[in-house]
Design brief:
single chain; 70% helix; 77 residues
């Protein structure tokens, strides 16, 4: 199973929320986890683009990656 690295700040917020019961950190945790998930998704699309077996799969992954990073279609080649 792969490992996922998070910031120390997010880790501390998770500990305070789950072990100490400090509800104040809920929004910070949600934002941090959403950001991490987006980053992982972008990385997966990029990796697929670089390692795909066919040109069609590469192009599909490239388009998904560019859409995720917010590159306007006019600037894509």
């Amino acid at each position: 199973m792969k490992q996922v690295q998070i910031s120390e700040e997010l880790f501390q917020a998770l500990v305070k929320y789950h072990l100490v019961g400090m509800e104040d950190y809920r929004e910070e945790i949600e934002k941090g986890l959403e950001s991490k998930l987006e980053s992982m998704t972008r990385r997966q699309f990029y990796s697929t683009y670089k390692t795909a077996a066919t040109e069609g799969e590469r192009e599909e992954a490239r388009q998904k990656y560019l859409d995720k990073v917010g590159m306007h279609r006019d600037f894509q080649r």
